[in-house]
Structure formats: structure tokens, C-alpha cells
Amino acid sequence: VATTTYPIIGADPDNGGIAENLEILSGASLTINNNSLRLTTILTLNGKLNLQGESQLIQDIGSVLDAASTGSIEIDQQGTDNSFRYNYWSSPVNSRETAFTIGEVLRDGTNPNNIIDIDFGSSYTYADGTTSSPIKLSTPWMYKLEDSGLGYSAWTSVGNNGEIKVGQGYTMKGSNTSAVEQNYTFVGKPNNGIIELTVDANNDHLVGNPYPSAIDAHKFIDDNGIFPGTASITGTIYFWDHYGGDTHNLADYQAGYGTYSKGGGVSASSNPSVSGVSTLGSSGKGAPKKHIPVGQAFFVVGDADGGQIQFNNSQRVFAKESPGNSVFMRNNNSEATTDNDLDTDLRPKFRIGFDAPQISHRQILLTLDDNTTDAVDWGYDAEMYEVFDDDMYWVLDDKKYVIQATNDFDFDKEIPIGIRTLEGGLVSIEVDELENAAEYTPIYIKDNLTGEIHDITNQAFSINLEAGEYQNRFFIVRQPTLNVLEEETLLDGIQIYMNNSISELQLNLIVDTEILNVSLFNYVGQRVKTWNINPDERSMSLPLQLASGVYIVMVETKNGKVNKKIIIN
Hints:
This protein is mostly beta strands. It is built from 2 helices and 48 strands.
């Protein structure tokens, strides 16, 4: 029992609270300081539970809030400091059991020790002025989107008095703060237990983390998956990231959707700067992470027959916001924390970037995962939520994907990428980042039209394209470049020479190593011949009777692999 002595659980990770039953009496409070409180059975809340900083309340499966409770919790989250830019929010508390209004649950938390009511105004520019106390928020920018396939016209205005269901998300632009970011405090009954919303086939629903704790995105995806979940959504979640554009003109917003699946996370695409509006060209928050923080809303899409979207207590985790953990989609970085046991992702990941006249930057992600295939894998492969006039994507089942997962990326494998350009122009492709993938370098792009292969590991491949859609021309491969025609070279102590006068491929071993095998690939990457080599041989002649053309010789030694282009004529 927490009494009127107002106990505090401190920030030391070892001091996290856990209780079977907890009662906070009327007039009493319990304060948690940057830490967690976990309950296994019953919370009787007649006083106040103050969750300061990044503190979180976790209730286990079966844990309940005593229905007769008359108290509340207070929990903070930070949003954009910019009155022109949206965050997508969800509420971790309710004021009407299964619903709430923004005005009922949201407070000005500029001073977390002295929360006050917000000054809501009905003018579109109400929050655009100078700093005030309390802060100002403009209600015309507050919307929800509930289970619709009508696109932009489906947004419903809620203002500060419209009812929103627990588990749904809503939009809200920033305040007139002068701080780096605006601190808000949610006040109400903590949401808990199974929370369900409906989504019809192929419809969009703006939902959000409904709890006063982080949730595990993988568990949420699985719980709404094909088996044993509710089989209701496509398995991908989309996060709005509004990173530029100080305007209320929709056409000038600098924003996009970050994407997350079990294959990983990809940041929002970056729009070109707008003259006189914004010079910022990229997301300030980067890729979404595995843990979805308190107050974060996101889009899901109904699968072929829709169903019930479910949140439940098994998804809840204590995870502070940090670069390796979770990220709330606002335009300023929060302070990094490192005192959580994070799930380390050691899967190889290939982040490929794209630039073009009508898009500042797009990144697509390839992840190697033994649980996946070359086909569409539910929950891992993620379709694009928005496709821009100029864009790049993975081609899967004739659809456009921003995240693809597969189980291997062998030397002879080709992975198709699609490119669209509405008006044509110069496009560029390069490796943005490799994670846990050093053994797979270098990475190349192959142009099937010209037969040329270009190293994009450390430099961009650029090409002028005419307007159109290109789905069978460009491939990501692990083959060497074909830029220079040579008949003889010394590569890592191996002399490789195509003797066309006698139709033999001749190899001479100069250094002290062993050749394990030799393979020959044609210019489209197909393996056409393999030789097993006696490791004692230092020189060898390998007969070749093949059609004229350019080929790649790959020599595997005990010290690694070397590649050489040859010409057969």
C-alpha cells in the first residue's frame, strides 16, 4: 500500500518496482522516476501514480485495474516544437473507459512538476504565435482516420472535444513553445488488457500504442498475423515523419512514412527542398525501431478479408527511447538511454539508397533471415505506403516493396529492383549502409540492357533515364565490375589468361595458397561451368568451348575469392 508519505521509486535500474497487488489511497501518490513499475494482479488506483521522465507502467496478462478506482496516472511524452508539423499520437490513458477526448486527457507539461490545462483555439494559426503559458494548440489540425479505404478524404476532424476510441491514433500539430520540443502530460485511467479495433479488407486504420508502456512491434505483428493471431492486417506498420516545411499548405509538407516489419525498419523517404519553405531534405528521426514508445500512433492496413486489430498485455515491455531501442516520430532527437536489455539483431542488412529529381532520397532494405524465402513472406516483406513520382522499390509479386527479406544472397543471385520516373532525368543508386554484412561486400548493380555491372558499395551509379517504369532492367548482384577489357592480369597472386588460340583458360599460382575451385559465369550471372582443382597444382589449363562473349572467372582459394573478366572469341 502506498500511503500519504508519497513514496518514490528512483531511476536506478535495479530499483524497478514489481508488485502482485498495489493500492494507492485517495490523497496519496506514488512517483516513478525514469523507471518501471510492473503489476501482476490488481491495481487499485484512488490516488495518483506519477510516471516521470521515461517511466512506464506494465501490467501482466491477467492484471486488472479495479473498476471502482477513482484516481489517475500522469505520464509524459514529447512532441514537435513546430506548430506547422504533425505528430501522430495515441493516448495511454482514457477518460471514458473505452474512449477519450484530447481535451480530457492532454495537459501542458512544460513544467512536469506543475502541469496545467492547455489553451485550445479554433483558428488554423492559433498556435503559430509567440510563446505563452499555458501553451496553445490549434484544434483544426486534430483528426482521426478510422477503418477506411477512401484515402485523404477519410480523415475525420475531432478537435479537442471529439471522441476517440482507446487504441486509435490522432493527428496534432505542435504548440507555440520556444523549447527544443514540447512536453505533454497525459492524465487519466491507464489503459490495460485486450483492446480491439476493426479493420475491413484493404482499409487503412490509424491506431496507436494504447498503453503507458512501450510495446513490442514484432509481438503486435504476430498477434495480428495469420497464425495464431487475428489474421487481420498485412503485417507492416507505417509511421508518419514530418521533418520539414514550415507551412500549413499540404503541398509543401516535407514528410513521409517510415516503415517497420519483422524484416527491420526504414526511414521515411525525403522530398526535395521547397524554395522559400524548407531546405531540409531528410528525416530527422531515421528508421523506426522494434519497440513502439508511449503515445506513438501508426497506420496498419487490413489484409484480404480484414478482421480485429488486437493490442494485449503480452505486447508490453519497458523500453526507453534510444537509437537502438524505440523512437517517437517527432522532429527532434530525444536523449539516448542505454539501460535496457535490447534484442540484438545480427541479421545481415543491405540498405540501398536512391536519388532522383522528384525525390531527395529513398532507402530500401534487404534483410537476410533464415525464416524467409524469395517469395512474399507475411510480416517480413513490407509494401510501400506511398510511391512518389520518382521512386525505387523491390519487385515482389508485381508489387512495390520497401523492405524485402530473403534467406540467402549468394554470388550468383540477382535481386530485381524497380525504378519509376514520371518525367525522366538523372537517377542515382548506391549502398547507404551495410549492417552485419561485411562478408557480402562489394555490392554491384547490373544493367540488363547494357550488360554492364557497377560497384555501388562506396560510390553511386548514375544514369539518365527516360520517363517510365523499369522493372526488369536493374538488379542488385555480387558480381564484379566489367568496365575494363583485359586479357591478362595478376589478381592476389593468381595469373588468369584466356588463350583463345587454343581455347583454354590458363591459371598460374604465384603465391603460397591453394585453389579450391574455379567457376565461370556468363554476363547475366549464370554459372556455366565449374572445375574442381587439385590443390597441389600450381599451373593449369582448362579447355573452354563456349560461345563468344564476355565471361567472369571466379577463383576460390583457401584465402578467399578473386574474380576476373575474360573475353572468349
